[in-house]
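note to self — DONT lose this again. spent like an hour looking for the file last time. sequence + predicted structure for the chain T wanted, 218 res
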Amino acid sequence: MARAVSPKRGTAARKALAASDPVMAALIERVGSIDLATRLQRRKEERPADAYGALLRAIVGQQLSTKAARTIYLRVLDLFDGRTPSPEQLLAVGEEDLRAAGLSGRKVSYIRDLAAHVISGELELDLLDRLEDEQVIEEIVAVRGLGRWSAEMFLLFHLERPDVLSGGDLGIRKAVQIEYGLKKMPTPERVLEIGEPWRPHRSLASLYLWESLAAVPA
């Protein structure tokens, strides 16, 4: 199992990533220094600190803008005195109350399925940080409403795994298309092929690819 990201390894990771691929080297030169550990910590401060809360927040925010997702999530928390509800509390509240907070009927069923998986022990959240990346993904996607992309974002931003590349992420696919001069947006499989040389620093590569889009006109 890969260790969580360490601030001390940041410079070495950038150098290794640049040496692995001339296109990535040019991107790193253009964007400048990105401290993966600092970025991940900042992201974690904006999200629930516990695994259950992080996955709950992921479901609530699906297919919504950042602002809308935050608004609805806070409305959900208001049903529980502003705190992340336990799985038992979540199952006890009425569907009408959850929908009134802004959740669709489908998302209500998804968060309840998450709560049920935790209560039954099918999803052992305390064990996730001990599993290999693919094992974590398998555990998470067993919950309705949580797909591979959500699991990969959990790996990267919550567990801080250093070698995560989400081939299906639209931002990463678009950035790869631009940086590598591809005529069409690459398939998820092609993104993973291109990113193979970036191992074991694909999380850092992902941040550089996302950052590259900030300078691209909409």
